[in-house]
Amino acid sequence: MKAPLPLRSKSFKKSRGASCSLPLLLLIGAVQFLVIGKPFPSLLMDSSRRAFFNLAEEEFIPEPQVSCDFNDTRSDYCEMTGAIRIRGSTSEVFVMTPRRGTTAGDVVGDNATWIAANATSWKMQPYTRKGEARIMNGITAVTVRLADADEAPACEVMHDVPAVVYSNGGYCGNYYHDFNDNIIPLFITTRHLGGEVQLLVKQKQAWWFGKYGEIVGGLTRHEALDLDGDARVHCYRRAFVGLRSHKDLSIDPRRAPNNVSMVDFKRFLMWRYALPREHAIRTDDEVAGGGRRPRLLIITRRSRRRFMNLEEIVAAAEEVGFEVTASDLMSPAKKQGGEAAVVGDGGQARMADASATVNAFDVMVAVHGSGLTNLVFLPMNAVVVQVVPLGRMEGLAMDEYGVPPRDMNMRYIQYNITAEESTLSELYPRGHPVFLDPGPIHKQSWSLVKDIYLGKQDVRLDMARFRPVLRKALHLLR
């Protein structure tokens, strides 16, 4: 029985539509009539001839071009062009070759040292926490195969845009990791494609695409496919397996396509959420003009690492010269009239509300934790103050939330609390290793670190120490 012709995606049909003007078409028709006696022969093909040409186009197999990087500490990544067939039900990506016996050594770049030269397939886990075995054990692997026409499944849907294959699993649902492990890597990997790309998602979380719909919609004009739930064979001319990832909550423009940076990412978010403020207040200008006071946002937490003397902090900030608001930014968004947002909106309304709230401020103060991720919505030149709890968290705090503000043209202040400012002093004697030597606790297990320093600790800031930090933040706005 004759195999059915592959379907073409809507995007393919759109891009293949006629773009010639009428005079040009008439000229082409006249030339063809003079040469072969029949104008527009391709338009007059019968269905069998048209089918033949479509089939020939599908079965033409160019030399593949594959470039992989398995040396990066954060993620594995492959980019491939040619005839690519992807079958989600078996988690396989087929790179078509015009001849049998093609191996990795024939097509893969020199930097793919992890692949044996004689290999005809290799596995990849398309998630950006490569060094964390505990979380990577839950990431579904994708197999990339080099295959000739007899070894690969037939095309069922053909696309004219590139594909990006990646996993939506891992830490999905943690606000920091949503941006760090998925959103920013997606931006790095796809932004240069101008929306003409399709996401093929392993372990896809539908709610995630609802919550971050504005961001995803700015990166692709095409529906993201649930690769685990789609048994069809999708065919592309270009595909990426895995996402590029550079550093915590940031981008290295030297390694990014088109040299995109975190400033570009910040402007992208401003566009998607219609945020009005690109730059924070300049206090000298406002004072000279009799304008408003600078605004300071204190991000509160519902569980541990709370500010236990919040009223004191607010009063001190107002005394220094700020207009102060405290918020957890996690309450459901409100409709007009004060009603709660519609249940089941996937968090999209909450994201719009949180981004607009943060963008209205000039300084943000928060204890180390996922709430600091909201710094991506602050205007440039704003100031981020991170309060770091006990437990040798200073290096981690700097990497996760200290470097990103500087990469986004913002200012950063890190405030490391003392034992007297930690509620751990109410749980352990001052001679306990929790205070004297956290190193062995870190070596013993990260779970123990999280349990003690992140799970049991609140902060009570010493205002004699913290008030100068508030003055410095005000000074940096000049």
TrEMBL record:
Q: Give the species this sequence originates from.
A: Hordeum vulgare subsp. vulgare (Domesticated barley)
Q: What is its main location?
A: Golgi
Any one cellular-component term (Gene Ontology): Golgi membrane
Pfam families per UniProt: Glyco_transf_61
Q: How does it sit in the membrane?
A: Single-pass type II membrane protein
According to the entry, every stretch annotated as the Glycosyltransferase 61 catalytic domain falls at 267-385
Name of the protein? Glycosyltransferase 61 catalytic domain-containing protein
Q: Does the keyword Secreted apply?
A: no
Identify the coding gene: LOC123409168
Q: Which UniProt keywords apply?
A: Glycoprotein, Glycosyltransferase, Golgi apparatus, Transferase
Q: Which GO terms describe its molecular function?
A: UDP-xylosyltransferase activity
Q: Where in the cell is it found?
A: Golgi apparatus membrane
Q: Which PANTHER family does the annotation name?
A: BETA-1,2-XYLOSYLTRANSFERASE XYXT1, GLYCOSYLTRANSFERASE
Give me any GO biological process, just one: plant-type cell wall organization
Report the pathway entry.
Glycan metabolism
